[in-house]
Structures are given as C-alpha cells and as structure tokens.
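Before drawing any conclusions, I looked closely at one protein's amino acid sequence and its backbone structure tokens, quoted below without any editing.
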Amino acid sequence: MRGLYSIIICSSVLFFCGCNYNVVKDPNALGGQNGKQSAPISESALIDWNLMKSSVLSSCMSCHVGHSAPELGSLSSTQQNLNTVRTEIHANTMPPAKNGYAPLSDCRKAILDSWIQQGAPETSTTRVGDLAACKGVADNPQESPENTPIEQMPLNYQTLMTKILQPKCLKCHSPDSDDLEAAGLLFYPYSEITKRSRLWAGPGATSKIVRSFTRTDGEQMPPPEDSGPLTPQEVEFVIRWIDAGRPE
C-alpha cells in the first residue's frame, strides 16, 4: 500500500510540474523571448503544418503538447482546436504574457489565419511573402535577433517588445498579472502604447516612461528585485524610438 501511495504522489508531481511556460520562450513571437527560440521565418517559407510547428505555434506547443488543453501535439488535434487557438492568439492570451511571452506578431497571426483559411493543410503552396502583413517584416533566417546588439536592431515596436518589454516588463504589465495596478497599464499590443501617449510622449530623454526607467529613489522600473534595471543601451533605444515618433 505504501508503494502505491508513492506512485500516486510521484505521478501527481510529474503532472503538475509537466508544463512550465517559463522554461521555453520564443523571442520571435512578436515575437518574439529568452531561452529556446522558434525557427525564424523567411518570406519564401510555405504556410504548412511544418511552419506551424517550427515557428508560428511553437511557443504554444511548449505547454499544449500532452499537458494542457487545447492539445496541439499533432496535426489532427490542432485542427480540432483551431477556433480556440485562433481566438486566444488574436486576443493575445496565448501564449501567456505573465510568463514572459510576447504576443504573436501581425505577420505570424496572418500566417495562422491563412493556414486556417486553406483548411489547415499538412502541405501548401502558399508562401509567407504572399501575405501583405509579412512583406518586408518576416524574419531573416541569416540573422539571429538574440545575438544582435539592440543599438543595431530596427527602430520599431517589435524590437522594443522583443528586447525590452517582453523580458523586463510584461510579467506585470499584462492583463493576467497579479499586480492589479500594473495590469491596468498595458504595454501590448501596440495600440495600448498609443492609448497612453502621455506616458510615451517626447522628447524621449524626459518622457515619463524613461524617467521611470532611470529613477534613483527606489521607485525605479522594473524593480531591481524582479528583472533589474534597463541597460544604458536599452534606455537609449527607448529614447530614440520615442523621438522617432514611436514607429510600429
């Protein structure tokens, strides 16, 4: 009997620990994140099941394969859950921001929509470059955003999200945050930035958001006990982005 109880306890522990969004993150999910990255997307890539697995849904699959519903472990199971997957991705509730994930980019959402409209096929002749949302913004497979210094990256919201907001701010500033005050001040999607233009108003060096990043009175954001302060290079990027008109 004691052996039976041990088996039950061990099985329960494995079940509840089997899924941890903090382990696998996708910097290209805008996106885009730290740790394991999804494969980059080129405009010549075919919009098929392989692309869904390797890039578009890879961050979701880190938990929704054998652990949590909806099940995305195979083409057939994904096809059965397409309405749920599409609804949650477009609502930016999957993958979860509170666990460090950025929402999927408009390009990746367009790829998902195109795949669904085709009937969610295993193979396809439609290419990423055929989609207006992906022209000129699909990932360059020859470059690794993870290793590119932020000062050399494009001056746009995607870089801001991938390199700064996602790893350092979204733990709190997301709809499902336990911090109710922070949850009321969202940093994604891009429309949330424009809604709070006073926070991001130029000039960048004296903007409210930059001042919150550089405070020295113990109220600095993000808090040192969390992800730590922004680097000088990251602060400079935010300043340049604001002064450039906050390009999306």
Residues 39 and 54 are 6 Å apart (CA to CA).
